Amino acid sequence: MALVEIQNVSKTFRTKVAGNTRDVHALSGVSFSLERGEIVAITGASGCGKTTMLRIIMGLEKASGGSVIVNGNQVSGCGYDRGMVFQHSELLPWRNAVQNVAFGLELKGMDKQTRDVEARRYLELVGLGHAADRLPHQLSGGMKQRVGIARALAIGPDVLLMDEPFGALDAQTREGLQNELMAIQAQTQQTIILVTHDLDEAVLLADRVVVMSQGRVAETLEMRLPRPRPSLAALRGNPEFGEKRLRLWELLKNEMDADARKAA
Ligand SMILES: Nc1ncnc2c1ncn2[C@@H]1O[C@H](COP(=O)(O)OP(=O)(O)OP(=O)(O)O)[C@@H](O)[C@H]1O
User: Fold this and answer.
1) What class has domain 2-81+157-263?
2) pLDDT tens-digit profile of 131-161?
3) What gap in Å lies between CA 194 and CA 201, rounded to an integer?
4) Pocket test residue of 50, 86, 161 for ligand 1, highest count of atoms within 8 A of CB
5) Residue 85: which of 147, 38, 175, 131 has the closest Cα?
6) Which residues line ligand 1 (CB under 6 A)?
7) Rounded distance from Cα 24 to ligand 1 centre (Å)
8) Domains of the chain: which residue ranges?
Protein backbone atom coordinates (compact mmCIF):
# COMPACT_ATOMS: atom_id res chain seq x y z
CA MET A 1 0.00 0.00 0.00
CA ALA A 2 1.17 3.55 -0.78
CA LEU A 3 2.12 5.85 2.12
CA VAL A 4 -0.74 8.25 1.35
CA GLU A 5 -3.95 7.06 -0.31
CA ILE A 6 -6.63 9.57 -1.29
CA GLN A 7 -9.62 7.47 -2.29
CA ASN A 8 -12.66 8.90 -4.04
CA VAL A 9 -12.84 11.98 -1.79
CA SER A 10 -15.79 14.33 -2.15
CA LYS A 11 -16.71 17.47 -0.25
CA THR A 12 -19.89 19.50 -0.31
CA PHE A 13 -20.14 22.73 1.65
CA ARG A 14 -23.64 23.77 2.62
CA THR A 15 -23.82 27.55 2.65
CA LYS A 16 -26.59 29.89 3.61
CA VAL A 17 -26.76 33.25 1.82
CA ALA A 18 -29.62 35.66 2.57
CA GLY A 19 -31.70 32.80 4.00
CA ASN A 20 -31.17 30.54 0.94
CA THR A 21 -29.31 27.26 1.38
CA ARG A 22 -26.89 26.35 -1.39
CA ASP A 23 -24.58 23.34 -1.81
CA VAL A 24 -21.06 23.98 -3.12
CA HIS A 25 -19.53 20.80 -4.52
CA ALA A 26 -15.88 21.56 -3.84
CA LEU A 27 -14.54 18.04 -4.52
CA SER A 28 -15.97 15.03 -6.36
CA GLY A 29 -14.27 11.65 -6.58
CA VAL A 30 -10.66 12.79 -6.05
CA SER A 31 -8.16 9.92 -5.92
CA PHE A 32 -4.36 9.87 -5.97
CA SER A 33 -1.59 8.35 -3.92
CA LEU A 34 2.02 8.96 -2.88
CA GLU A 35 4.84 6.57 -2.16
CA ARG A 36 7.21 7.42 0.68
CA GLY A 37 9.73 10.07 -0.37
CA GLU A 38 7.67 11.42 -3.26
CA ILE A 39 6.75 15.05 -3.89
CA VAL A 40 3.37 15.61 -5.50
CA ALA A 41 2.25 19.09 -6.52
CA ILE A 42 -1.43 19.99 -6.87
CA THR A 43 -2.25 22.82 -9.21
CA GLY A 44 -5.31 24.21 -10.99
CA ALA A 45 -7.43 27.32 -11.37
CA SER A 46 -8.56 29.32 -8.37
CA GLY A 47 -11.50 27.64 -6.62
CA CYS A 48 -10.89 24.15 -8.09
CA GLY A 49 -10.57 22.62 -4.61
CA LYS A 50 -6.81 22.46 -3.91
CA THR A 51 -6.89 23.92 -0.39
CA THR A 52 -10.00 21.94 0.52
CA MET A 53 -8.19 18.74 -0.50
CA LEU A 54 -5.15 19.63 1.61
CA ARG A 55 -7.29 20.57 4.64
CA ILE A 56 -9.09 17.22 4.41
CA ILE A 57 -5.76 15.35 4.32
CA MET A 58 -4.63 17.38 7.34
CA GLY A 59 -7.86 16.56 9.17
CA LEU A 60 -8.92 20.22 9.45
CA GLU A 61 -11.97 19.53 7.30
CA LYS A 62 -14.14 16.42 7.14
CA ALA A 63 -14.75 14.80 3.74
CA SER A 64 -18.38 14.25 2.70
CA GLY A 65 -17.34 10.94 1.12
CA GLY A 66 -14.31 8.75 0.43
CA SER A 67 -11.27 8.33 2.62
CA VAL A 68 -7.70 9.48 3.28
CA ILE A 69 -5.26 6.86 4.55
CA VAL A 70 -1.79 7.81 5.83
CA ASN A 71 0.62 5.03 6.67
CA GLY A 72 -2.25 2.56 6.97
CA ASN A 73 -4.38 4.75 9.25
CA GLN A 74 -7.61 6.38 8.17
CA VAL A 75 -7.54 10.14 8.82
CA SER A 76 -10.31 11.31 11.13
CA GLY A 77 -8.75 14.50 12.55
CA CYS A 78 -5.38 16.21 13.01
CA GLY A 79 -2.43 14.05 14.03
CA TYR A 80 1.36 14.12 14.35
CA ASP A 81 1.68 11.93 11.25
CA ARG A 82 0.90 15.07 9.21
CA GLY A 83 2.43 18.54 9.32
CA MET A 84 1.22 21.63 7.52
CA VAL A 85 2.85 24.80 6.22
CA PHE A 86 0.55 27.66 5.20
CA GLN A 87 1.14 30.65 2.92
CA HIS A 88 1.67 32.82 5.99
CA SER A 89 3.27 30.94 8.85
CA GLU A 90 1.41 32.11 11.93
CA LEU A 91 4.09 32.11 14.59
CA LEU A 92 3.39 32.74 18.26
CA PRO A 93 4.59 36.36 18.62
CA TRP A 94 5.81 36.01 22.22
CA ARG A 95 7.97 32.98 21.44
CA ASN A 96 11.35 33.19 19.72
CA ALA A 97 12.17 31.07 16.64
CA VAL A 98 13.43 28.04 18.56
CA GLN A 99 10.47 28.14 20.97
CA ASN A 100 8.07 28.31 18.02
CA VAL A 101 9.68 25.25 16.42
CA ALA A 102 9.59 23.47 19.79
CA PHE A 103 5.86 24.13 20.23
CA GLY A 104 4.64 20.95 18.52
CA LEU A 105 7.24 18.89 20.39
CA GLU A 106 5.97 20.37 23.66
CA LEU A 107 2.41 19.32 22.77
CA LYS A 108 3.79 15.86 21.98
CA GLY A 109 5.10 15.72 25.56
CA MET A 110 8.85 15.84 24.81
CA ASP A 111 10.97 17.06 27.74
CA LYS A 112 12.35 20.61 27.60
CA GLN A 113 16.01 19.78 27.02
CA THR A 114 15.36 17.27 24.21
CA ARG A 115 12.88 19.53 22.44
CA ASP A 116 15.30 22.43 22.59
CA VAL A 117 18.03 20.31 20.97
CA GLU A 118 15.58 19.00 18.34
CA ALA A 119 14.16 22.45 17.56
CA ARG A 120 17.67 23.88 17.09
CA ARG A 121 18.55 20.94 14.80
CA TYR A 122 15.56 21.75 12.56
CA LEU A 123 16.35 25.46 12.58
CA GLU A 124 19.87 24.56 11.39
CA LEU A 125 18.31 22.40 8.65
CA VAL A 126 16.40 25.39 7.28
CA GLY A 127 19.47 27.64 7.58
CA LEU A 128 18.28 29.62 10.60
CA GLY A 129 20.58 28.38 13.34
CA HIS A 130 21.87 31.95 13.77
CA ALA A 131 18.37 33.36 14.36
CA ALA A 132 17.17 30.91 17.01
CA ASP A 133 16.66 33.61 19.65
CA ARG A 134 14.86 36.15 17.46
CA LEU A 135 11.20 36.94 17.97
CA PRO A 136 8.84 36.68 14.94
CA HIS A 137 8.72 40.47 14.45
CA GLN A 138 12.51 40.41 14.08
CA LEU A 139 12.31 37.91 11.17
CA SER A 140 11.76 38.60 7.44
CA GLY A 141 8.87 36.96 5.55
CA GLY A 142 11.21 34.30 4.14
CA MET A 143 12.69 33.59 7.57
CA LYS A 144 9.20 33.19 9.08
CA GLN A 145 8.34 30.66 6.36
CA ARG A 146 11.56 28.79 7.19
CA VAL A 147 10.52 28.67 10.86
CA GLY A 148 7.10 27.38 9.74
CA ILE A 149 8.78 24.63 7.70
CA ALA A 150 11.10 23.73 10.60
CA ARG A 151 8.10 23.62 12.98
CA ALA A 152 6.20 21.26 10.67
CA LEU A 153 9.24 19.02 10.03
CA ALA A 154 10.24 18.83 13.70
CA ILE A 155 7.25 16.70 14.67
CA GLY A 156 8.51 14.05 12.23
CA PRO A 157 5.40 13.81 10.04
CA ASP A 158 4.92 10.98 7.55
CA VAL A 159 3.74 13.60 5.10
CA LEU A 160 4.33 17.35 4.93
CA LEU A 161 1.43 19.37 3.48
CA MET A 162 2.31 22.76 2.00
CA ASP A 163 -0.33 25.24 0.86
CA GLU A 164 1.35 27.79 -1.42
CA PRO A 165 4.18 28.08 1.09
CA PHE A 166 6.20 30.55 -0.98
CA GLY A 167 3.27 32.36 -2.61
CA ALA A 168 3.61 35.51 -0.50
CA LEU A 169 7.37 35.91 -0.99
CA ASP A 170 9.30 38.01 -3.51
CA ALA A 171 10.68 36.10 -6.52
CA GLN A 172 14.27 35.94 -5.30
CA THR A 173 13.40 34.73 -1.80
CA ARG A 174 10.97 32.22 -3.32
CA GLU A 175 13.66 30.71 -5.56
CA GLY A 176 16.05 30.52 -2.63
CA LEU A 177 13.50 28.66 -0.52
CA GLN A 178 12.55 26.33 -3.38
CA ASN A 179 16.22 25.33 -3.65
CA GLU A 180 16.44 24.88 0.11
CA LEU A 181 13.32 22.73 0.16
CA MET A 182 14.85 20.52 -2.56
CA ALA A 183 18.05 20.18 -0.54
CA ILE A 184 16.12 19.36 2.67
CA GLN A 185 14.02 16.78 0.86
CA ALA A 186 17.13 15.18 -0.66
CA GLN A 187 18.56 14.89 2.86
CA THR A 188 15.42 13.75 4.71
CA GLN A 189 13.42 11.98 1.94
CA GLN A 190 10.36 13.76 3.34
CA THR A 191 7.10 12.94 1.52
CA ILE A 192 5.46 16.22 0.46
CA ILE A 193 2.15 17.37 -1.01
CA LEU A 194 2.52 20.91 -2.30
CA VAL A 195 -0.31 23.15 -3.51
CA THR A 196 1.01 25.74 -5.92
CA HIS A 197 -0.10 28.12 -8.68
CA ASP A 198 3.51 28.47 -9.80
CA LEU A 199 4.19 26.19 -12.78
CA ASP A 200 7.97 26.56 -12.49
CA GLU A 201 7.75 25.50 -8.85
CA ALA A 202 5.60 22.47 -9.71
CA VAL A 203 7.97 21.24 -12.42
CA LEU A 204 11.08 22.01 -10.37
CA LEU A 205 10.01 20.30 -7.17
CA ALA A 206 7.49 17.58 -8.00
CA ASP A 207 7.75 13.98 -9.11
CA ARG A 208 4.14 14.22 -10.24
CA VAL A 209 1.71 17.08 -10.75
CA VAL A 210 -1.99 16.56 -10.11
CA VAL A 211 -3.94 19.05 -12.25
CA MET A 212 -7.35 19.77 -10.74
CA SER A 213 -10.36 21.30 -12.41
CA GLN A 214 -13.74 22.00 -10.81
CA GLY A 215 -13.20 19.65 -7.89
CA ARG A 216 -11.85 16.75 -9.93
CA VAL A 217 -8.45 15.44 -10.99
CA ALA A 218 -8.26 16.47 -14.65
CA GLU A 219 -4.89 14.83 -15.27
CA THR A 220 -1.75 13.67 -13.53
CA LEU A 221 1.58 14.51 -15.16
CA GLU A 222 4.79 12.62 -14.41
CA MET A 223 7.67 15.07 -13.98
CA ARG A 224 10.54 12.88 -12.85
CA LEU A 225 13.35 15.15 -13.96
CA PRO A 226 16.51 13.47 -12.67
CA ARG A 227 17.50 14.31 -9.07
CA PRO A 228 19.44 16.09 -7.68
CA ARG A 229 17.98 18.92 -9.74
CA PRO A 230 19.86 22.16 -10.29
CA SER A 231 18.36 25.47 -9.22
CA LEU A 232 15.41 26.91 -11.12
CA ALA A 233 17.73 29.46 -12.73
CA ALA A 234 19.87 26.64 -14.17
CA LEU A 235 16.90 24.41 -15.07
CA ARG A 236 15.26 27.13 -17.16
CA GLY A 237 17.66 26.43 -20.02
CA ASN A 238 17.04 22.66 -19.88
CA PRO A 239 14.91 21.44 -22.85
CA GLU A 240 13.24 18.70 -20.75
CA PHE A 241 12.19 21.29 -18.15
CA GLY A 242 10.84 23.56 -20.92
CA GLU A 243 8.90 20.68 -22.49
CA LYS A 244 7.29 19.61 -19.16
CA ARG A 245 6.41 23.19 -18.26
CA LEU A 246 4.82 23.79 -21.66
CA ARG A 247 2.78 20.58 -21.36
CA LEU A 248 1.56 21.66 -17.92
CA TRP A 249 0.74 25.17 -19.15
CA GLU A 250 -1.24 23.78 -22.12
CA LEU A 251 -3.18 21.42 -19.86
CA LEU A 252 -4.11 24.21 -17.46
CA LYS A 253 -5.07 26.51 -20.32
CA ASN A 254 -7.32 23.82 -21.85
CA GLU A 255 -8.99 23.22 -18.48
CA MET A 256 -9.54 26.94 -17.90
CA ASP A 257 -10.93 27.41 -21.45
CA ALA A 258 -13.30 24.46 -20.88
CA ASP A 259 -14.41 25.98 -17.53
CA ALA A 260 -15.02 29.35 -19.22
CA ARG A 261 -17.09 27.68 -21.99
CA LYS A 262 -19.21 25.86 -19.37
CA ALA A 263 -19.76 29.08 -17.45
CA ALA A 264 -20.78 31.03 -20.62
N1 LIG B 1 -15.81 26.83 4.26
C2 LIG B 1 -16.37 26.92 3.04
N3 LIG B 1 -17.68 27.15 2.90
C4 LIG B 1 -18.26 27.20 1.69
N5 LIG B 1 -17.60 27.05 0.52
C6 LIG B 1 -16.27 26.84 0.60
C7 LIG B 1 -15.59 26.76 1.86
N8 LIG B 1 -14.26 26.53 1.60
C9 LIG B 1 -14.14 26.47 0.27
N10 LIG B 1 -15.33 26.65 -0.34
C11 LIG B 1 -15.60 26.62 -1.79
O12 LIG B 1 -15.06 25.40 -2.29
C13 LIG B 1 -14.48 25.61 -3.56
C14 LIG B 1 -13.00 25.20 -3.51
O15 LIG B 1 -12.30 26.11 -2.68
P16 LIG B 1 -10.72 25.96 -2.40
O17 LIG B 1 -10.33 27.02 -1.45
O18 LIG B 1 -10.43 24.57 -2.02
O19 LIG B 1 -10.11 26.25 -3.85
P20 LIG B 1 -8.59 26.49 -4.28
O21 LIG B 1 -8.38 25.70 -5.52
O22 LIG B 1 -7.68 26.22 -3.15
O23 LIG B 1 -8.61 28.04 -4.62
P24 LIG B 1 -7.41 29.13 -4.59
O25 LIG B 1 -6.43 28.69 -5.63
O26 LIG B 1 -8.09 30.41 -4.97
O27 LIG B 1 -6.84 29.15 -3.21
C28 LIG B 1 -14.69 27.08 -3.91
O29 LIG B 1 -15.88 27.18 -4.67
C30 LIG B 1 -14.89 27.73 -2.55
O31 LIG B 1 -15.67 28.88 -2.64
Assistant:
1) alpha beta
2) 999 999 999 999 999 999 999 999 999 999 9
3) 10
4) 50
5) 147
6) 13, 15, 24, 26, 44, 46-52
7) 9
8) 2-81+157-263
Q: Taking residues 225-235, what's their average pLDDT?
A: 84
Residue nearest to atom 17 of ligand 1 (CA): 51
Burial classification of residue 19, based on how many CB atoms lie within 10 Å of its CB (0-12 exposed, 13-18 middle, 19 or more buried): exposed
What is the Cα–Cα distance from 178 to 171, expressed in whole angstroms? Answer: 10
pTM of the model: 0.93
Nearest C-alpha to atom 27 of ligand 1 is from which residue?
Answer: 46
Which atom of ligand 1 lies nearest, measured to the CA of 54?
Answer: 18
Q: Which atom of ligand 1 is nearest to the CA of 61?
A: 1
DSSP state for residue 109 in the 8-state scheme: T
**What is the rounded distance in angstroms from the CA atom of residue 93 to the CA atom of residue 135?**
7
* Four-residue CA torsion sign, 181, 166, 143, 122: negative
Question: Is the model's pLDDT at 203 over the cut of 90?
Answer: yes
Per the document, the length of the chain is 264
CA of 51 to the centre of ligand 1 (A): 7
Q: How much distance in Å is there from the Cα of 115 to the middle of ligand 1?
A: 36
Band (pLDDT 50/70/90 cuts) for residue 220 is very high
